[in-house]
Amino acid sequence: AVSLRTDGVNVDIEGFSGRKEDLNALIKELYTTFKSTIPSSQISFDTFILPQCKWFFCKSYDYPTLAKYLDFFLPMGYDFVGWVKRQFANAPLDQLMLGVEQYRELGIPAHKLILGLPWYGYQFPCTNNVTIGAPCLPNCTKDSDDWQLDCPQVLYSQLVSTLAAATKRQGRDP
Predict the structure, then answer these.
(1) Which residue, of 34, 87, 130, 157, has the greatest Cβ tally within 10 A?
(2) pLDDT at position 33, please?
(3) What is the pLDDT of residue 84?
(4) Residue 103's Cα: distance from chain center in Å?
(5) 21 contact partners, CB below 8 Å, separation of at least 6
(6) What is the Cα–Cα distance from 137 to 84, expressed in whole angstroms?
(7) Torsion angle of alpha carbons 115, 67, 56, 134, nearest 10°?
């Protein structure tokens, strides 16, 4: 981190099912080392949107202890149904709100939460009629582990061009 001049680290451990104490010790050591070496550094940790879910990966985290050694939690509001139905979509609005409330109930202060809502650039044509707050169930999922290959990706340059054209049509500078 020092040689690359980064300002911290984001820990993303998918499906951790080890001992909570070991994870706590790892994050504490990471936090202590970063803060002593780069005092302004920030340590963040990706988690599932619902910290109080019933699946193994939710029960493997000691959120209040981790909060002592993290600057931020990043609850991921995407890939929501993938763990359950092997389909991937963004979390519905009610689940996002429930997740934030559950973090608060665990004693995680609001200033330590950054809601992760990425856009991968995949075209997820919905199999259902979508309204605001309702999940889009993509019809590009397959039974394979490589579902991304079946979902065409929008190039970033296409996104920039589309955004610039829409902005220009609205009479503003891109």
Answers:
(1) 34
(2) 95
(3) 47
(4) 14
(5) 62
(6) 13
(7) -20
Catalytic: which of 14, 21, 101, 105? Answer: 14
How many whole angstroms separate alpha carbon 39 and alpha carbon 23?
A: 22
Q: Are 80 and 98 in contact (CB under 8 A)?
A: no
| Catalytic residue status for 14 | yes
> What are 9's strand-pairing partners?
43
Position of tokens 């009629």? 129
The one-letter code for the residue type at 4 is L
pLDDT digits (tens, 9 = 90+) for 26-72: 999 999 999 999 999 999 999 888 888 777 667 778 999 999 999 99
Angle at 35 between CA 15 and CA 107, to 5 degrees: 55
The token duo for 96 is 């996002």
* pLDDT value at residue 118: 62
CA geometry: angle 118, 122, 55, nearest 5 deg: 55
Pair 72, 112: CB distance under 8 Å: yes
Q: Kindly state the tokens that stand for 76.
A: 């991921």
Instruction: Specify the DSSP class assigned to residue 77.
Output: -
